[in-house]
Write a structure and sequence with these properties.
4 helices; HATPase_dom; binds magnesium ion; binds adenosine-5'-diphosphate; globular; 8-stranded antiparallel beta sheet; alpha+beta
């Protein structure tokens, strides 16, 4: 998949949606990543709680403030619950990121990937209140709002991929 970037809040095309708050945070296209601190297969409610705790602990270790730590853990929890509820399981990773190789990591990338049923209409899926399971429908819009960079790609019948990054 070719990355698409935009300084707008969101740039949308048929199967791919991405947003990048370039004004506050320069593009992370050249960011370096460390080995994933967490890379787990999620299938159950307790897996969701585990992933959420791991992401919170990673954020604390990287000196994210309390509010950003909470936002990262919330985003991880939403991605994790989507993997469990909508995809029947999937992978979630959390990876420290840096923009300058000599400084300690100042960002965390969340990456979720599954081979589930995929999403037919990404624009609808990102609309506040839209849910195919009668739940709140705030998960994906929430992740997009809470994180600095957000991209999603999905293909019906083949699965879904979400990448979101938060910086200090
Ligand atoms: N990993 C996924 N695989 C398949 N469908 C998904 C996935 N994540 C989200 N969706 C779809 O996008 C919709 C919106 O997701 P979300 O905003 O998290 O709301 P909710 O989980 O409350 O339904 C879901 O109802 C579901 O149809
Ligand atoms: Mg959800």
């Amino acid at each position: 998949m070719r990355p698409i970037r935009s300084s707008d809040d969101a740039m949308m095309c048929h199967r791919h949606v991405t947003s990048d708050r370039l004004c506050e945070h320069p593009t992370d296209a050249i960011a370096l990543s460390f080995p994933a601190a967490m890379h787990v297969w999620l299938e159950t409610e307790s897996d969701i709680m585990f992933a959420c705790r791991e992401v919170r602990s990673l954020a604390e270790r990287l000196n994210f403030n309390r509010s950003s730590t909470y936002q990262l853990a919330t985003a991880a929890s939403e991605l994790a619950s989507n993997l469990v509820i909508h995809a029947g399981g999937g992978w979630l990773s959390a990876t420290p990121m840096t923009k300058q190789c000599l400084t300690p990591p100042q960002g965390i990338e969340l990456l979720s990937k599954d081979d589930g049923p995929g999403i037919v209409d990404l624009i609808l899926a990102l609309t506040e209140g839209y849910s195919t399971t009668g739940s709140l429908g705030c998960g994906l819009p929430g992740v997009k709002r809470l994180m600095d960079t957000f991209a999603i790609d999905s293909e019906p019948g083949r699965g879904t991929w979400v990448r979101a990054v938060k910086w200090h």
